[in-house]
Every structure is written in structure tokens, then in C-alpha cells.
Design brief:
The complex is a heterodimer of chains A (about 120) and B (about 775). Chain A contains three helices and no strands. By secondary structure, chain A is mainly alpha-helical. Chain A starts with a helix and ends in a 14-residue tail after the last helix. In chain B, about 70% of the residues lie in helices and about 0% in strands. A two-stranded antiparallel ribbon of chain B has the order 1-2. In chain B, β1 and β2 form a beta hairpin. Classes of the chains: A mainly alpha (about 120), B mainly alpha (about 775).
């Protein structure tokens, strides 16, 4: 099953990178989002997958049952998801502003900052 | 600590100079400081026996073998005395020469900084410390040559000196490190007694050559000689001080200092010195600029000194010390005279100067005395120096005719040059067609220092016995590291050296008479392409290379940058995979879980659609599919918290995109080209690499996981049943706090960007 997940990560990274190399602003944002998703999934999957056993302490017990999922990477990925959202919002605003300032949404036309 | 004081005092004076110099009536008062330091050194040397040393040390980087270790012996003391004694005269001279210069403070600061560094070089015991001071002299020299920094030429010449001596310094550092390793000591005072251990090292030839290269660059030996004549772009006090009397002697100093352990190098030093002597004198003979004449004769003298160190006998080292002291005295004096002439007449071109003795009598006296010492007339100290060189040569067992021949030819040319620089401008008669020289004698500060130095050269020559006892003997003891007896005399009887002196004087006079003929060949000689051409080509090549690689890499196009960065990352990853031959296991194991399989296919399809479609709404839809698919994958693999967060964030992102997307222009379809194809290929390969990494990561567990401890503590310690939540808000609360701060900053940024819309200057294209 891992293999399919690895392939999914590969596809997310590949499409994310490809989008980042496009000239259109919209694609740039799409690339950032896809890359973020791929990275989250990579960290999550790299720690090992456990189906159907979340790291929860049951009523009356003092620790999660043996064999429960590893909570640490989950905590890391949770942080990453939120930060990724912040990044998306900020870059979207920034690029939108840059587009307005320069009057174009061609990324390659952004290299003449003096003209802005 | 004792020996650190003179350095601190000089450096401190330098730092105070910019503050004090505008308030003092005359900058000549600064000369009191080096004079006092010179007095202190003289007193120390008088109290030290001739083969005694004085040491002082302070801890510094002890672990690295670098301590503030200093030592003072006869040789170091002599050099320190020259540096500070001549230094104080230079300070007096500079106050007259540069008087009223708006940046006198800066000049004095650099001059004193150099003086401190130079004293540091000659009294440093520790090799690392020696290197530090050595480089400080290069840097201050750079700043002094380029003192007139608005002059492009001066800047280029300063850079040239810095690059050549700096590169040599690096070679020397490597050599010193190897030497210290071979001797098991970083202290010169210990290391000089371990000649056998050093000689037995397999690295011996390597560090000998590296140190020789460093010394050759500093002391302007062929082929690294070209920076010295060019350094004449410096103000004259600097040339007089750094580029004749002190700094350029540092290389010779180091070679002499290390000669007890790096002996057996007659061939290297001898050849290097001999070639430098002939090159310097030969190139100098056609010069007509006073400072360049002097610079080339300095080259010739430095060559002689190197040659004598190569010979290495007691007699040779005695000659070396005598020659060095004599040269320091007369050359600094002649340089100052050149500056005074320049100051008084506005030109340094010897061809235009004649009969100045009536107008500048004091300068003329100083020049005559110095020139006679340089030419090697008795009873000047220069005569004894030359006599000793011939004596050394005739006492050699092998190669005596060669050394003597080189020395006679070189000295003959030096004789002619000495008269040209110190005699011709003052005593020659007016030539037909020459302009009358409008000149005036300088103030005492311009002629007193050279006169003092020239008289010192005469005094040492008149009382050679005293000079031998006080200065020369202790210096030779310091070099050879064992007691020696030295006696100098003006008259040695009728022998070979005297005969050779006669030949030198006769030949020199002949060459001097031919000076006008030689000047006509000036342009022919200047047009020769030498090592400087190699330097210039090399420098231009470096700049061209830098430009070419900047053009290639810094294209200013985002996609190109990403392509280069990811391309190299991918190449490294692939190389690692291939290197370890650990291709992850791609075999399919276990059954098929239909739910995650379907989810994965959904996510992949979404990603591909988002990448390929040009409909904006379809992109949003595809992104939603990807995000929600991943959320359900999280849920399936026991991560409910992740799933909840992901769904929330996904919803917010889509809403946000919906708000913005209608402002964005429709996606233009890009032309498919080789560029797009290679970008697509790189993306796929990079993606596959990341996939392989995931497969590989499962086999990698570098340290015991802390997850079990966290899970075990979660309820008893933090009273939370959801371990992931407890980690976030309790165990790693600071991380979460940082995350909140990041979000807050992003929010502030967004708010700031939305606050004021910029005025659109161009129409939408």
C-alpha cells in the first residue's frame, strides 16, 4: 500500500514543481499549494502508516493501546498544514499585489523591479 | 606582556591620530612616539647580551597553538630598531611633505598601523602570530599605496600589490603550518633548534618552497617583482618607508630567520636572488623617473640579500646584515630626497633636472652622502657592504665566479643608478634645450630626515668596529642561533674584493656617462611583456569568468532558478542512490486496501488536472479534490486531528482563491517547447526521487523514537487523552507559539498589502 502512497507523493511533487516553473501567476500559487500537500504527506508517510488506531488514551487507561499510530509526526504535520495555509494566503496576496503593481501576471516580467 | 607594549603603543597612536592631528600644530610631534619606541628597543638590546633573547607571552588561542608569544633577539631587535627609527624620521618627513593634507589623520593612522604590524612581524615568536602581523603589513600597505584613492591608477596598483603579496602570504601560511607540524612546535624560538627533525620531514621540500614563495612575493623576487615598481603610486613617504626600508625586507627577514632550519637551499635562493638582482638592475638602468629608479634598485638589493641568505655561511650572513642596514639607511634617504625634489620642482623626471645644488643645498648634501653610500664609495657603510659581498663570493668553495660575476654586474649598474638618482639632479650641467628648473628648497622637515639617515650611513662607515659590535654581531648571532665574532673594517688590504670594487666603480662611471643613451631605450624596455602581463591576463580572465557564470546562472527568470536548483538537487540525489546501490524495495506486499487506493488515485488525478487544465474553476475544483483526498487519507491512517485541520484549511483556501481568482487573468496556454519538455522531465524525475525517499525512509531509524515516552506521559503528566493535542499544546507548546507568531506575521503582511491599492501604471496586457 505504501507504494501507491509513495507514487501519490511523487505525483504531487512533480506537478507542484512543474507549476512553479510556469510563467503564469495562478500556476505559481497552485504549485505552492501542491508542493505543500506533497511535503505534508511525505512527512506523514515516512514515519510509517497505521490504519485505524489513533493515538488516543482510552477511558480508564493511562496510555494509548500498544500499536497505536505515532503521534509525533502527526503533530509536526499539523503544524505544517497551518503554516502552509499562512504561506498560501500571504503569497496569494503578495502576487496579486505584484500583478496590480506591474500590470501583468507574467512572472518573467517581474524581473524589472525598477520599472514598478 | 613586555614586548606587546611597543606594538600596542604604536597601534594606539595610529588610532588616536585622526582625532589628534587636526588639533596639533605639527604632525611631526607624532614622530616622538616611534622615536621613544626605538629608544626602548635600543635600550633593551644594549642590556641583552649579543646571543641572549628576551621572551614574553600571553595566552591567546592556546588550543590551536596560537599564543601571543614574542621574542627579541639581536636580529629581530635590529629590524625593530630600523622600523621604528626610520619610522620616526618618516613621520617628520610626512608632516612636511603632506602638510595641510585634509586627510593627514588617516595617513598617520595607516602609517602607524603599518609600523605596529612591522614591529609585530619581527618580534613575533609564534608562527600564527607572525602570519597575522605579516598580513597586517600587506593590508596597511594596500591602503597606503592606494592612499590617493580617487586616482584610478593608484587603486589598481594597490590592488596589484595586495593580490601578489596576499597570495604569497597564503602560500606562506600553508608552509608555516606544515613547518610547525614537522617541528612539533609553533614557536620560532623552539623550532630553530630542531633542524634535524625538520630536515627529516617528508614534507620538507613542500614547505620550503611554500615559505620561499611567500617571502619572494613580499620581497618582490622575480617573477613576483612587478608590484614593487608599481607601488610607487604611493605618496613618497610611504615608498621611502614601506617599499625600501621596511616591509619589502620582511620576506628577506623571514628567509634569514628560518635559514638555520631551511638550509641546503643555495640553489633556490641563489638563483632567485641572482636573477632578481640582474633583473632589477637591468630594468632600472633605463628608468628616468626618480622613484622608479629607486624602486628597481631596491629590487636589485633585495635580490642580493636573498642570494646571500642562500649562500648561508657566517660571512654571507654578516654581509647580508651589513648590506641590509646600509641599504635601509641610504635608500630611505634617497626616496625622501626624491620626494623633496618632486615637492620643490614639480617633477621627478631626471632628464629635466640639473644643477639643483645651488637651490637646494641641504637636500643636495643628503642626496650626495646617500648616493655615495649606495654607490659603495669608501668610507660609507655601503662600501663595507659591497666589500663584504665580494669577500663572501671569493670565500665560496663552489660557484664563486658565478656569484662574483653576478654581483659585479649588478653592483656596477647600481653604482650608475645611485649617481643618476642622487648626483645627476644636483650636480649635472644644463643640457642644450633643457628647461630652466624652477625650484625651491623644502622646509627643514623635508631635508633633515634624509640628511640624518645619510649621516648615519657615514658614521657607521667611519666607525665600523663600533657598528660590528653593537648591531651586526648580535644580529648575526640571532640569525645563526649561536655566538659569532664579527669585526668590520674599511681597509682589508689589497685583495680581490678591493680589485672588484675598483672594477665596479670604473664600470659604473662608464654606465653613468652613457645615461642619456640608455634613457632613449626606456620605451623598448617598458614594452617588454613580463610576468605582469600574465598577472593582468589572469585578472581579466577571472573577471570574464565571473561575468560568464553570472550571465549563465543569474538569468533573472524564476523558472530558470528553480530549474538549476532542483536540477542539481536531483543530480545529487540520483548520485547518492547510485552510489549506495540501495534502490528501495518496490515489491508489492500485502493485500490491496481499496479505500486508500481509491483516495490516492483521486489525489493524483486532481494534481494532474490542476497542472494541465487552463480553466480557473477547474483548477479550484481539482485543488479541492487533492486537499480533501489527503484529509481522508489522514483519517484512514489514524490521524483524525490532521484530517479535521486539513478540511478546515482546505475550505478556507478554496474560499480565498474563489475571492481572488476572478481578478486574475485567464491562464494563457504556453507554447510547448524543449524548455517545457525538459522542465516536465525534471519535475517527473524529482517527484520520483521524493517517492523513492519515502520508500527508503521506513528503513531508516537513526535514534530511538521519543513517541512512546510522549504517549506514556500524555495522560499521567499532562492530563490529556489525545496525544497529538497534548504534544502541540503542552510538550511542544513553544513550537506552537512560534507557529502562531508566524501566522500573525503573515496576517499583518496580508493586511499591509491589502491596505492601500497601488495605482495601476500600465493597462492590463
Amino acid at each position: 500500500m505504501n507504494l501507491v502512497l509513495a507514487l501519490t507523493i511523487a505525483v504531487l511533487f512533480a506537478s507542484g514543481i512543474y507549476c512553479l516553473m510556469r510563467r503564469c501567476l495562478m500556476r505559481l500559487v497552485v504549485g505552492l499549494i501542491l508542493l505543500g500537500q506533497g511535503a505534508n504527506l511525505l512527512v506523514f508517510a515516512a514515519a510509517g502508516l497505521t490504519a485505524g488506531q489513533p493515538a488516543l488514551v482510552a477511558e480508564g487507561a493511562s496510555a494509548p493501546p500498544p500499536g497505536a499510530a505515532d503521534p509525533l509526526p502527526q503533530a509536526l504535520v499539523l503544524t505544517a498544514i497551518v503554516i502552509g495555509f499562512g504561506l498560501t494566503v500571504f503569497s496569494l496576496t503578495l502576487l496579486n499585489r505584484a500583478r496590480k503593481a506591474s500590470g501583468t501576471d507574467d512572472v518573467d516580467a517581474f524581473n524589472r523591479t525598477d520599472a514598478v | 606582556m613586555t614586548l606587546l607594549w611597543p606594538i600596542l603603543v604604536l597601534a594606539g597612536t595610529g588610532f588616536l591620530a585622526p582625532l589628534l592631528s587636526p588639533r596639533l600644530r605639527s604632525a611631526a610631534l607624532f614622530a616622538l612616539v616611534p622615536a621613544a619606541v626605538a629608544g626602548w628597543f635600543a635600550w633593551q638590546m644594549a642590556t641583552l647580551g649579543k646571543d641572549e633573547t628576551m621572551t614574553s607571552s600571553l595566552p591567546w588561542f592556546g588550543m590551536l597553538g596560537a599564543g601571543l608569544d614574542f621574542w627579541l633577539d639581536g636580529f629581530g631587535g635590529l629590524m625593530a630598531l630600523l622600523a621604528t627609527g626610520i619610522g620616526s624620521l618618516i613621520a617628520v618627513y610626512a608632516s612636511g611633505y603632506m602638510g595641510g593634507h585634509p586627510q593627514m589623520g588617516r595617513f598617520l593612522m595607516l602609517l602607524f598601523g603599518f609600523m605596529a604590524a612591522m614591529v609585530g612581524v619581527v618580534v613575533a615568536d609564534n608562527l600564527i602570530l607572525l602570519f597575522v602581523f605579516w598580513e597586517l603589513t600587506s593590508i596597511t600597505s594596500y591602503l597606503l599605496i592606494g592612499f590617493n584613492h580617487e586616482d584610478k591608477e593608484a587603486r589598481a596598483k594597490a590592488l596589484q600589490a595586495l593580490l601578489v603579496t596576499g597570495a604569497g602570504g597564503l602560500a606562506m601560511l600553508a608552509g608555516l603550518l606544515l613547518l610547525g607540524g614537522a617541528a612539533d612546535s609553533w614557536k620560532l624560538s623552539e623550532l630553530l633548534g630542531r633542524g634535524e627533525q625538520i630536515g627529516a620531514s617528508p614534507m620538507y621540500p613542500v614547505f620550503t618552497l611554500l615559505i620561499l614563495a611567500g617571502a619572494a612575493a613580499k620581497s618582490a623576487q622575480v617573477p613576483l617583482h612587478f608590484w614593487l615598481p608599481n607601488a610607487m603610486a604611493a605618496p613618497t613617504p610611504v615608498s621611502a618607508y614601506l617599499h625600501s626600508a621596511t616591509m619589502v625586507k620582511a620576506g628577506v627577514f623571514l628567509l634569514a630567520r628560518l635559514s638555520p632550519v631551511l638550509d641546503g637551499t643555495v640553489l633556490w635562493h641563489g638563483t632567485l636572488g641572482g636573477v632578481t638582482l640582474l633583473t632589477g638592475a637591468g630594468l632600472g638602468i633605463v628608468q628616468h623617473d626618480l622613484k622608479r629608479i629607486l624602486a628597481y634598485t631596491t629590487l636589485a638589493v633585495l635580490g642580493t640579500l636573498t642570494m646571500l641568505i642562500g649562500v648561508g655561511t657566517e660571512l654571507a650572513l654578516e654581509s647580508m646584515v651589513v648590506f641590509l642596514v646600509g641599504h635601509a639607511l641610504y635608500k630611505a634617504a634617497l626616496f625622501m630626497v626624491a620626494g623633496t625634489i618632486d615637492h620643490g620642482t614639480g617633477t621627478r623626471d631626471v632628464r629635466r633636472l640639473w644643477g639643483l645644488r645651488r637651490i637646494m643645498p641641504f637636500t643636495a648634501t643628503a642626496a650626495l652622502l646617500a648616493a655615495f653610500s649606495k654607490a659603495g664609495f669608501p668610507p660609507f657603510f655601503g662600501f663595507i657592504g659591497k666589500e663584504y659581498v665580494y669577500k663572501t663570493g671569493s670565500a665560496m668553495e663552489a660557484a664563486a665566479p658565478l656569484l662574483l660575476g653576478v654581483a659585479v654586474v649588478g653592483n656596477t649598474m647600481l653604482f650608475a643608478l645611485a649617481l643618476k638618482a642622487g648626483f645627476h639632479p644636483f650636480w649635472s650641467k644644463r643640457q642644450a634645450g633643457a628647461d630652466p628648473v624652477a625650484a625651491h628648497e623644502g622646509p627643514p622637515s623635508l631635508w633633515a630626515p634624509p640628511l640624518a639617515l645619510a649621516l648615519a650611513g657615514l658614521a657607521l662607515g667611519l666607525f665600523p668596529g663600533w657598528a660590528a659590535e653593537t648591531v651586526v654581531a648580535s644580529a648575526v648571532c640571532g640569525i645563526m642561533q649561536h655566538p659569532v665574532e664579527v669585526s668590520l673594517a674599511l681597509w682589508h688590504g689589497l685583495n680581490l674584493p678591493l680589485l672588484l670594487s675598483g672594477v665596479t666603480i670604473a664600470g659604473g662611471f662608464f654606465l653613468y656617462r652613457q645615461r642619456r643613451l640608455l634613457w632613449r631605450h626606456h620605451h623598448t624596455v617598458e614594452a617588454l611583456r613580463g610576468p605582469m602581463h600574465v598577472y593582468e591576463r589572469g585578472l581579466a580572465g577571472l573577471v570574464d569568468f565571473a561575468k560568464a557564470q553570472t550571465r549563465a546562472l543569474q538569468s533573472g527568470t524564476l523558472s530558470r532558478y528553480i530549474f538549476i536548483i532542483l536540477g542539481s538537487t536531483t543530480a545529487l540525489l540520483l548520485w547518492k542512490f547510485a552510489h549506495f546501490r540501495e534502490w528501495p524495495d518496490l515489491a508489492w506486499r500485502g493485500g490491496v486496501d481499496w479505500v486508500p487506493l481509491a483516495l490516492c488515485i483521486m489525489v493524483m488525478a486532481g494534481a494532474v488536472v490542476a497542472t494541465t487544465t487552463s480553466s480557473r474553476i477547474t483548477i479550484l475544483f481539482a485543488l479541492g479534490v487533492v486537499g480533501l483526498g489527503i484529509a481522508v487519507i489522514f483519517l484512514f491512517y489514524s490521524a483524525p486531528d490532521l484530517a479535521i485541520t486539513q478540511i478546515l484549511v482546505e475550505a478556507l483556501t478554496i474560499i480565498l482563491l474563489l475571492m481572488v481568482v476572478h481578478h486574475l487573468a485567464p491562464i494563457r496556454h504556453e507554447q510547448h517547447s524543449w524548455g517545457t519538455a525538459s522542465q516536465a522531465l525534471l519535475s517527473v524525475v524529482f517527484g520520483l526521487c521524493m517517492g523513492l525517499l519515502v520508500r527508503h525512509a521506513k528503513e531508516l531509524q537513526l535514534a530511538a523514537s521519543i513517541a512512546e515516552t510522549l504517549a506514556a506521559w500524555s495522560y499521567p503528566e499532562a492530563h490529556g487523552r489525545n496525544v497529538v493535542n497534548v504534544i502541540l499544546v503542552d510538550f511542544r507548546a513553544l513550537d506552537t507559539f512560534g507557529e502562531i507568531v508566524v501566522l500573525a506575521i503573515a496576517a499583518i503582511g496580508v493586511a499591509a498589502l491589502l491596505q492601500r491599492e497601488p495605482s495601476v501604471r500600465k493597462e492590463r496586457t
